[in-house]
Amino acid sequence: MLDDESQMEKYVDAIKQLKLMGIKVILATGVKDEVARKIALRTGILAEKHQNICGALIHGKDLKKIYFGADSAQSFQITPEYLSVVCRASLDDRAMLVDYLSRFNPGRSSTNSPYGFGSDTPRAIVAALGSGDNDVKMLKKAKVSFSTNLQAHHDAKEAADIILMTNQLEDVVICVAMGREYKDHFMKLIMLQLPCSVTAVALIIA
Length: 206
Fold this sequence. Notes:
206 residues, mainly alpha, 3-stranded parallel sheet, 6 strands
């Protein structure tokens, strides 16, 4: 999807909008690291100032070592804050990435707890976007999953929570914006109705 040159400008704008919304974007792909780095830099997923930081771009095999405990996150110097690209990622690697990130607390500094992980802190909400049959495990693992209606594998569509009607990344931006707006309206409705409900219950009891 992100290697479509004709849509590159739109991808850059969409990723910029997602970042402004406070959403961390990570590219998980099966291509080699040189190609993945190029795509990530062009789209803005990987910032130029962060590209040489250890752990900003890793291989799927390295993720396996961390996930299964062969290397601790601290010894391998992986910081979820800077992790932007996982290249040579298999379908199992992508599912592991979602599970790994879901244990991360984005509101906690890595200096307080090893990279923000901890059972006593809120976990990150991890969403996934994929359209291939090798994305199915990742889509099922994510809290919220997206797939596309165009050119997407049937199994990916079945696994996704939300199916985008077009192949445009900006549709994800629209979904996030609408979801947050609906949440705000719903919370306002609750706050408006709650005092009335409490008063009604009090009158009935009296």
